[in-house]
Amino acid sequence: MPVALVLLLALSSVIPINARGYGAGSVCDLGRRPNTRPHSVSILEFGAVGDGKTLNTLAFQNADPSHWKVVDPLPSYGRGIDLPGKRYMSLINGDKLHDVVVTGDNGTIDGQGLLWWDRRPHLVEFISSENVVVSNLTFLNAPAYTIHSVYCSHVLIHKVTANTSPESPYTIGIVPDSSDNVCIQDCRINMGYDAISLKSGWDEYGTSYARPTANVQIRDVYLRAASGSSISFGSEMSGGISDVVVRDAHIHSSFSGIAFRTTRGRGGYIKEIDVSNVHMVNVDTAFLANGSFGTHPDSGFDANAFPLVSHIRLRDVYGENISVAGCFFGTKESPFTSVLLSNISLSMKNSGSSDDSWQCSYVEGSSDSVVPEPCSELESSYGIAVAFVPT
Ligand SMILES: *[C@@H]1O[C@H](CO)[C@@H](O)[C@H](O)[C@H]1NC(C)=O
Ligand SMILES: *[C@@H]1O[C@H](CO)[C@@H](O)[C@H](O)[C@H]1NC(C)=O
Ligand SMILES: *[C@@H]1O[C@H](CO)[C@@H](O)[C@H](O)[C@H]1NC(C)=O
Ligand SMILES: *[C@@H]1O[C@H](CO)[C@@H](O)[C@H](O)[C@H]1NC(C)=O
Ligand SMILES: *[C@@H]1O[C@H](CO)[C@@H](O)[C@H](O)[C@H]1NC(C)=O
Q: Which GO MF terms are attached to this record (predicted)?
């Protein structure tokens, strides 16, 4: 036992993953005092405010498309997601609020996405707000993002169900964006594109706004992402993403399980990410890291702004019916570094030819107890030493 301890300490000095937010006092406990909050809103059905304690600063859009409000783009994006210039306001939105609870006794809010696909507002958006709780609600058919928190601190998303049809284009469930101290717990999310996506601004706009997404916990989630990834980082990450802990995630019927996306011109970083206890079923690519992914807002980006992707730990993962175990495609100018894989067991759809079950370029890291065996780039020597730790 002392031998094992020494080796584990040695391991952490080779690749320290310092994602904060473990244990007591974590972000998942911070917001958990809904009854002491001064303002609360109960939404029993779309557009209707329930119990008389209306918080009039939380706005509900009129659901008539011809009266849809157009607002300024977010400063960290410089434009709308799909279109240059302005963007459509979200259905439910709050700007510069604090101590807000949006809860609904498991009521349903239906965004009627089909009506909106040409405009793509988000269903719920909080901007520059603090101490926000969204809980016990079911959201259906968001036209774009279901819950978008941008420039927020202390956000708790608890017991939320969010569904869109698997065919819905680019729908994303929960998007912590340039936000810190975020907890997503006990949620069920089924989306056309990504279930949970962490972001922090787009190219030169995100770089100058410089607000990272940090200290995020994701726990006890059931996720499905038909054409994207159940959990993704980026591709808009120019303000940086760090200190993210994902634990106890159930991922099914998804194109990819965990994805890291970035590209030249983004700058920023994705680092100190710790993912553990993940169960994946019927997933095409379990881990997908792509360093040449995504477009630019305009031609003003700095082509020499290379993103950093480093200190990523993926451990205790069990997968069934997986087609590709992992693709890690860094680039020559910004290789992915310190990727640590341990205790990963993936049973492959075509178990015969496992030669291409991992595909790697410009990535460096190590692995311990990983099946199928990863590419050599992810097998630095210390990983072999750890494999001999006596138990
Ligand atoms: C909440 O509603 C969803 C469907 O809208 C349902 O699947 C789920 O079981 C409900 N949860 C509770 C605790 O009632
Ligand atoms: C959500 O519902 C659960 C019961 O399913 C309840 O214990 C909890 O207090 C509710 N949370 C809020 C914020 O209303
Ligand atoms: C395996 O997963 C694929 C999706 O990646 C799915 O279409 C297929 O039905 C699954 N097979 C089984 C046996 O569940
Ligand atoms: C990376 O993203 C680019 C652009 O979307 C795409 O062409 C390429 O196929 C992706 N690579 C992988 C391995 O998915
Ligand atoms: C390996 O991961 C599985 C979950 O996939 C977990 O149940 C098991 O305890 C882990 N083993 C070790 C030695 O940590």
A: polygalacturonase activity
Q: Enumerate the β-bridge partners of residue 361.
A: 329
Return the residue whose CA atom lies nearest to atom 7 of ligand 3. Answer: 282
Ligand 1 centroid to Cα of residue 262, in Å, is 36
Determine the atom of ligand 1 nearest the C-alpha atom of 138. Answer: 5
Comparing CA positions, the residue from 222, 225, 169, 219 lying closest to residue 197 is 225
pLDDT value of residue 63: 58
pLDDT 10s digits, 188-232: 999 999 999 999 999 999 999 999 999 999 999 999 999 999 999
Neighbours of 112 (CB within 10 A): 15
Residue nearest to atom 2 of ligand 2 (CA): 136
Could you tell me the CA-to-CA distances from 158 to 21, 103, 118 in Å, in that order?
17, 10, 30
Beta pairing class for 269-290 and 229-233? unpaired
36 CA → ligand 3 middle, Å: 46
Residue range 5-388, CATH number: 2.160.20.10
Q: Which H or E element spans position 348?
A: strand 336-348
Distance CA 382, CA 367 (A): 9
What distance in angstroms lies between residue 329's CA and the mean position of ligand 4's atoms? 9
Backbone angle region of 108, left / alpha / beta, with phi > 0 → left and psi within -120 to 50 → alpha = beta
- Atom 14 in ligand 4: which residue has the minimum CA distance? 290
Alpha-carbon span 133 to 333, nearest angstrom = 41
**Ligand 5 contact, 276 CB (< 6 A):** no
Q: Are 85 and 119 in contact (CB under 8 A)?
A: no
